[in-house]
Specification:
The chain has 217 residues and is α+β, with helices and mostly antiparallel strands. Helices cover 14% and strands 33% of the residues. It folds into 2 domains: 83 residues, RimM (Elongation Factor Tu (Ef-tu), domain 3, Beta Barrel); 79 residues, PRC-barrel domain (SH3 type barrels), CATH 2.30.30. It comes from Bifidobacterium animalis subsp. lactis (Bifidobacterium lactis). It is found in: Cytoplasm.
């Protein structure tokens, strides 16, 4: 995505956080960056344009990437027009945004996941199976909704259950096999104990079994 145009802040355009600028590096305007993107190679390619929000009327200031490099798992970027250490220091703590990129079918933006209903994969698979009886009414266990996406090396979904209790679930295919944006839900296949009340032994049943007499021979 190579463009020098500035998005119109009056248009319903959603920009995505890419990075926060850190310390200046050296004397020629290079800065370290704290990543919010999982695709830094694309975001920091020379010629890519990122934007800083300015306080006045939510105006946008463009910054064009001149060069970027990595060292010990850190990214360092130089922007056009930022040519010395003083200019680089002036940008410290600035958050830069980028325009949405085209995603693969199995990729999502955090905002896409917010509000999705959460169901058990086993129940949804049974309802969609070829041998499922036609016209059968299936009721899915309501595990709640996605209320937050915690970004990092591995995303975490924060899911709030109907009883207001919340839990965190790593957003990986093994645990979240299906995301259906069209129908507004995702499915989860958690191991026992990860989701409160799912896959845990029933306390009452356990107590009953402790006091029960052994079966007769």
């Amino acid at each position: 995505m190579h463009t020098n145009s500035v998005p119109d802040p009056q248009q319903p355009q959603e920009l995505l956080r890419v990075c926060r600028i850190g310390k200046a590096q050296g004397l020629k305007g290079e800065v370290s960056v704290e990543l919010y993107t999982d695709d830094p190679h694309a975001r920091f390619a020379p010629g890519e344009v990122l934007y800083a929000r300015e306080s006045a009327a939510d105006a946008l200031r463009p910054y064009t990437v001149a060069a970027a490099r990595t060292f010990k798992n850190r990214w360092y970027v130089r922007f056009e027009g930022v040519d010395d250490r003083n200019a680089a220091e002036a940008l410290r703590n600035t958050v830069l945004y980028g325009e949405p990129q085209e995603l693969d079918d199995d990729e999502f933006y955090p905002k896409d996941l917010l509000g999705l209903e959460v169901y058990l994969e086993s129940e949804v698979s049974a309802a969609n199976a070829d041998d499922a009886p036609e016209g059968a009414g299936f009721e899915f266990t309501d595990l709640g909704k996605v209320v937050d996406v915690i970004e990092g090396a591995q995303w975490l979904l924060k899911i709030r259950m109907p009883n207001r209790e919340a839990f965190l679930l790593p957003f990986v295919e093994a645990l979240v096999p299906e995301v259906n944006l069209e129908e507004g839900y995702l499915t989860v296949d958690p191991p026992g104990g990860l989701v409160p009340g799912i896959g845990e032994p029933d306390i009452a049943d356990t107590a009953d079994s402790v006091g029960a007499a052994p079966p007769s021979a």
